[in-house]
Structures are given as C-alpha cells and as structure tokens.
Amino acid sequence: MNQKVLFFSTRSGLKLSKNIAFFYGKFLGKVRFLEFSDGEYTPCFEQSVRGSKVFLIGSTFPPVDNLMELLLMCDTASRASAYNITLVIPYFGWARQDHKDKPRTPIAAKLIANLIVASGATRVMTMDLHADQIQGFFDIPVDHLYASRIFINYIKKLNIGQLTIASPDMGGAKRARSYAGYLGTDVVICYKERKKANEIEFMNLIGNVKNKNIILIDDMVDTAGTLTEAANLIKKQGAKSIRAIATHPILSGNSYEKIHQSEIEELVVTDTIPINQTKPHDKIQVLSCAPLFAEVMQSVHKDESISNKFII
C-alpha cells in the first residue's frame, strides 16, 4: 500500500517548513489553532490524516510553547489514525542537559525524548545534536543529520589559503577534528573554564594560529560569549582572519551586538532557528538546511538508505 505523504508545521517554524516542503515537492497541510483566553491552545488538522505518512516539522527552541505545540500536533495525528508520524526537529532544544553534572538536576534531553515517544511519534529527524548519545534516549529510530554537508561546500567555495579549523571549547574538539580531516587542515582548540552557565572565567588557546585564516566550528551559538571570546583571543595570537560556523543560531540576549563588535568577520549559520531581523546581522550569513532535510525525508518515505547523505 502506498501511503499518502502529508506535511504540517508548528507556527514558529513556518518559513523553514515551507522551504522543506517546496524542495520535497509538497505543500504544507493546514492546521487551525483554537486558543483559550488563558493562553491554552489546541491544534486541529483541517484534512484527514488517516492512513497517511505524516511529517510534523518544528524546532523546539524557547519558549516552551514551541515544544508543546509539536507534542500536541503529534498526539493529534496519532489519535487521528496516521500510518506513521515523523517529527522533523531541525533544532532539538534542551539538548545541553544530556547528563547530570551535579546532584539534584534533571536530564532534560531524556525527558523530552520520553515526551516525544509518548505523544505517538514513530520516528525523529534532527540535525547536529549537542551530544550524539541523545539518539540513545529514544526508543524509536532517530535520523541524526549533520550540517557539515552544507558547511563543507561553503568552505570550499571560499577557497581560503592557510586555513586552520578551530574549536571554541574542548567539547567541540571532535567536531573540529572531523572538519579538519575532511579539509586537510590543522586544528587549534580553545580551553575555557566557566563560573556558571553562559559566563566564562578564563580561556586559553592550544595550537598555533599566527598568520592563519581561522574558521571556528560549533554546533550552536547562544549568548555568543564563547565564540566571540575565542575569536578575540585567536586574533591576539596573530591570526589573519576569523570566521565562525554554527549550526543553530539561538542568539539570545545581546549576542547580535557581541558578534557585531567582535573580531569575527562572518558568522555562518543554518535556518534551523529564525534570525531576528531587527538586530544587527550584517556579519551573519544564513544557509538553508531545507534541501538536505527534504532529500533525507524522501529517502525515508521510500525506505531507502540515507548513509550516503552524511559527510561527518
């Protein structure tokens, strides 16, 4: 039996969802939201999903409504007898809470995984999880895509000489080594200590950057504190130019201003999270992840292997 494929989107992810549907060759289905005066809401699909393969698209960045919306839509599709339900979550929120780093704290990423499975999802598709082990938190298949396939092509087109890949912290060293191995470059690593979340106490540099063109690699940029501190440190050590690449542009607080005032010449991100167009963003270049998601979704629908979709 050849099931019909249907696409739906959360309200916060409409632009990316429309692009994914466009590259897939589909249109988004219509969802109506009924809202109560206290802020409670309920989604309602305006077409039948019975027996269909349903793709629900939406990133789970704050506020928490973005996650709740996706969970409610998944429950709706499950109770309306969808054949299967794939949650396409370009940015998986709460992924930084993947373990207990001190007593009496949650493992939020595992809790979110449990909620997603409980809502009726049969598959999850996401990009550049903060920690690879989060895939194991799910009891359903997870397709973990890498933005490296997007960024590698961009870096090659820059045709930069004396290129060196850098990680802004020790946690990203593996990612930086992977990029460097593929591009045939050296690697430098910044070592940092934090006072508390989003506040750096000190930072040191491991490796030589003198007269090199540096590309900092990270999975996300939140307050931009780590990224801009690393860029400023690398510049002081004699680097010729500094660019940064980060998959998920969370960009909270005064991060736009920090980037604008830093030594970073260009920050390249994907559209997993919408950019705030009212902030200074002349240094920010956005590459779309829509074609990659659409390509993998087509393979999943046809039950084809997706191993050839990965670079790193």
UniProtKB/TrEMBL annotation:
EC number: 2.7.6.1
Reactions performed catalytically: D-ribose 5-phosphate + ATP = 5-phospho-alpha-D-ribose 1-diphosphate + AMP + H(+)
GO cellular component, one term: cytoplasm
CDD domains reported for this sequence: PRTases_typeI
Pfam families: Pribosyl_synth, Pribosyltran_N
Record carries keyword Transferase: yes
Keyword Magnesium attached: yes
SMART domains in UniProt: Pribosyltran_N
GO BP terms, alphabetized: 5-phosphoribose 1-diphosphate biosynthetic process; purine nucleotide biosynthetic process; ribonucleoside monophosphate biosynthetic process
GO terms of molecular function: ATP binding; kinase activity; magnesium ion binding; ribose phosphate diphosphokinase activity
Stretches assigned to the Ribose-phosphate pyrophosphokinase N-terminal domain: 7-120
Organism for this UniProt entry: Blattabacterium cuenoti STAT
UniProt-recorded name of the protein: ribose-phosphate diphosphokinase
Main enzyme class: transferase
Record keywords: ATP-binding, Kinase, Magnesium, Metal-binding, Nucleotide biosynthesis, Nucleotide-binding, Transferase
